[in-house]
Amino acid sequence: MSIDIRIGHGFDVHAFGDGDHVMLGGVRIAHDRGVLAHSDGDVVLHALCDAMLGALALGDIGIHFPPSDARWKGADSRAFVRQCDALLHERGWRVGNCDITVICERPKVGPHAQAMREVIADDLGIDVDAVSVKATTTETLGFTGRREGVAAQAVCLLVRT
């Protein structure tokens, strides 16, 4: 039996550290903190990569872009998305749509959500209306509520090409 769709889920989190911006969805956002990460620490794109990889049971972002590999030090996470997309296409799949939620108190995501959607759509070669980016808080509960870090979760639907 042939399955014509696959669904994947991804989650990522990074603690805040020194810095003056965060990268979210490929967009540089001014912030009073940075993130502690091996790459640029873009939780949105990392969660998306995990969702894409997970939909085809290809492991997770750490397998494909290990923090132990110096090539990925400070890397732009958009390269991760494009490489994951290439892996999907090699296997006869493409992203049909994705839905991403950023979890943090600050920075405010709303003013940047459209730009994130456009970056992600461009990197995946899909229409912007197939990319959802939204945000929520944890009502001051937990590490995100205490403003110690940022998290994101993503779901994506893959369709056969």
Please characterize this protein's 3D structure.
The structure is a single chain. The chain is of the alpha+beta class and 161 residues long. It has one domain: 60s Ribosomal Protein L30, Chain: A, CATH 3.30.1330. It has 5 helices and 7 strands. Strands 4-1-7-5-6 form a 5-stranded mixed beta sheet. Helix 1 packs parallel to helix 3. The longest helix is centred in the middle third of the chain and has 14 residues. Belongs to the IspF family. It comes from Thermomonas carbonis. GO terms for molecular function: 2-C-methyl-D-erythritol 2,4-cyclodiphosphate synthase activity; metal ion binding. It is an enzyme of class 4 (lyase). Its EC number is 4.6.1.12.
Global mean pLDDT: 96
Rg (CA only):
15 Å
Shape: globular
Order of helical and strand elements: EEEEHHHEHEHE
Count of individual beta strands? 7
Structural class: alpha+beta
| CATH topology heading | 60s Ribosomal Protein L30, Chain: A
Largest sheet: 5 strands, mixed
CATH superfamily: 2-C-methyl-D-erythritol 2,4-cyclodiphosphate synthase
Q: How many angstroms does the end-to-end distance come to? A: 17 Å
Residue share in β-strands: 25-35%
- Count up the helices: 5
Site (Transition state stabilizer): 38, 137
Binding site for 4-CDP-2-C-methyl-D-erythritol 2-phosphate: 12-14, 38-39, 60-62, 136-139, 143, 146
EC number: 4.6.1.12
Catalytic activity: 4-CDP-2-C-methyl-D-erythritol 2-phosphate = 2-C-methyl-D-erythritol 2,4-cyclic diphosphate + CMP
Provide a concise account of the structure shown.
The chain is of the alpha+beta class and 161 residues long. The chain has one domain (5-160): 60s Ribosomal Protein L30, Chain: A (2-Layer Sandwich), CATH 3.30.1330.50. It is 29% helix and 32% strand.
